[in-house]
Amino acid sequence: MTFNFTFSKRQIEAMLKMIDDHEQDMISALEKDLRRPKQECMVVEIDFLRNDLKNILYNIDEWVKPERPEKTFVNLLDDVIIYHDPYGVALVMGAWNYPIQLLLVPVAAAIAAGNCVVVKPSEVAESCSKLMEDLVTKYLDNIVHKAANQYLTPVTLELGGKSPCYIDSTADIEKTTKRILWGKMINAGQTCIAPDYILCTKETETKFLAEARKVLKEWYGDNAKDSPDISRIIHQRAFT
């Protein structure tokens, strides 16, 4: 681990340069793995990551400052300080549905906190995995610690679940339908918080289905399979 946050900031800056230098390579890899449209690549992966890195650089000096909490009668005469120490080594295992963003955002957070990171891209998104392997080793400092596994302490899992949408009978059905379908169709629905089902009255259901058919045709044409504006399921096993 490193308590030198100048080093951490240098790594975050290197990640920003990596994105600027290889933005098109990332788009191409995402297109190969998910056939994701360029605009979607930018919104949900590349610009998302870029903005997160800039936010870290803007705030890191404040985040790592020691805190002086309010004192109570018990420690009134003491000098009470909270220091934020790194855990040591973090293991980040990427996910295939957002193979760049969900890998590098937690990597950046771990580095910003002063940790060293073991990075494991998703083997399912093969093109992105190969690209990340090449770029991370090129742009970030490789520091290997002996017996690093001794310090892999807490585990954090990012899991998806059922995400219902409720449509009230007074809702603007045109606006509501577009918002729900956008959330469902981005990345071909392969998002942990994508809308999963809808709660509404039978009357609202009829209105929603009619509007949904119109919107989907407007977005993707008569045959969505031929549309360049919709991502694809990562592989047959995920589809079935």
Automatic annotation (TrEMBL):
<dbReference type="InterPro" id="IPR015590">
    <property type="entry name" value="Aldehyde_DH_dom"/>
</dbReference>
<feature type="domain" description="Aldehyde dehydrogenase">
    <location>
        <begin position="12"/>
        <end position="135"/>
    </location>
</feature>
<comment type="similarity">
    <text>Belongs to the aldehyde dehydrogenase family.</text>
</comment>
<feature type="active site">
    <location>
        <position position="158"/>
    </location>
</feature>
<dbReference type="GO" id="GO:0005737">
    <property type="term" value="C:cytoplasm"/>
</dbReference>
<feature type="domain" description="Aldehyde dehydrogenase">
    <location>
        <begin position="143"/>
        <end position="239"/>
    </location>
</feature>
<dbReference type="InterPro" id="IPR012394">
    <property type="entry name" value="Aldehyde_DH_NAD(P)"/>
</dbReference>
<dbReference type="GO" id="GO:0004029">
    <property type="term" value="F:aldehyde dehydrogenase (NAD+) activity"/>
</dbReference>
<dbReference type="InterPro" id="IPR016163">
    <property type="entry name" value="Ald_DH_C"/>
</dbReference>
<dbReference type="GO" id="GO:0006081">
    <property type="term" value="P:aldehyde metabolic process"/>
</dbReference>
<dbReference type="Pfam" id="PF00171">
    <property type="entry name" value="Aldedh"/>
</dbReference>
<protein>
    <recommendedName>
        <fullName>Aldehyde dehydrogenase domain-containing protein</fullName>
    </recommendedName>
</protein>
<dbReference type="InterPro" id="IPR016161">
    <property type="entry name" value="Ald_DH/histidinol_DH"/>
</dbReference>
<keyword id="KW-0560">Oxidoreductase</keyword>
<dbReference type="InterPro" id="IPR029510">
    <property type="entry name" value="Ald_DH_CS_GLU"/>
</dbReference>
<dbReference type="InterPro" id="IPR016162">
    <property type="entry name" value="Ald_DH_N"/>
</dbReference>
